[in-house]
Please model this.
Amino acid sequence: MAKAQKTILVTGGAGYIGSAAVKALIEKGHNVIVADNLSKGLKRLVDKKAKFYKADLTDYGALEKIFKSNKNIDTIMHFAAYKAVEESMEKPEKYSDNIIGTINLLGLMIKYKVKKIIYSSTAAIYGEPEHNPMDESHPAKPVNYYGFTKLESEKIIEWHSRIHGINYTILRYFNVAGDAGLGYTDPEAKNVMPILMEVIFGKRKKFMVFGNDYPTRDGTCIRDYVDINDLIKAHILAMDAKENAIINLGTSNGVSVKELVDATFEVTGKKFLVEYAGRRKGDPAELFASNENAKKLLGWIPEKSIKDMIKSTYEAYKKNMTK
Ligand SMILES: NC(=O)c1ccc[n+]([C@@H]2O[C@H](COP(=O)([O-])OP(=O)(O)OC[C@H]3O[C@@H](n4cnc5c(N)ncnc54)[C@H](O)[C@@H]3O)[C@@H](O)[C@H]2O)c1
Model:
């Protein structure tokens, strides 16, 4: 039987992950409304079939107009946030908007009787890993203000659920990578995969590996990369989840920086300069997810490998950077 069509408000729907969610929702036949302030998002990434509003979530009036003119919203996918870790330690006031925006959304959900929120959280809420794999009961002690804003938003969502009965799925992403067919290239590359691509396409001279003396299998840091297409599938599954839940989204397979570099050489066939430097302050040796909850509660199994992620990212950069 075909699933009923829903109306979804996607905040941050012009960003890297939000735009991929909009595309997937439209392909499934849902009505999609997007709210994005375009601080980083790009209008061209938003599917033309979605209804787009340029709005900042801290502007309660602008946000209420969206709820007023779209009275039938079933679910909110809340991606909108500032996410640059270093900047969050320099401009915490800007990052507080992540919390204010969430509070505004929740207030309007209650006023307009929207029942469900799927929230984009992050492994950054955990802080220093005390054990690996990290499960959802791992202590939450963020070590940067960005992580703090995401954790506070989680808690505020949980309180609104307790008090007003809102249903939530909080998804804690590990390192999201790959392309969802939109040809996304990061305008402010800060993550390792976009940085690698900028090296390949000559925007940077070399790829720096920080630390090769960590107590890991090859001395470089280990992280958990999850493909954007797999990640979006988890959001689609979460739309039907009736129980409130907090769920990690990672593959549970750590990949070292050296393994990532070697796989990039192999997949792209490109040569580029790699330089080793000392450790960076605050970089844990190893960090990867337990995804047992995602399997159990959503029936989610990530399918894409690190090579798939490199390949789709490379194709996206090739399309845009060689234009
Ligand atoms: N990319 C990752 O690896 C990763 C990992 C963990 C968690 N997350 C979370 O996933 C979400 C989406 O991340 P992304 O990688 O797509 O980032 P992104 O920066 O590409 O997208 C965020 C979007 O939100 C918009 N935005 C930001 N603040 C806003 C505001 N106050 N009002 C309206 N719009 C606003 C931006 O313009 C942008 O389009 C974020 O909540 C982020 O914290 C991302």
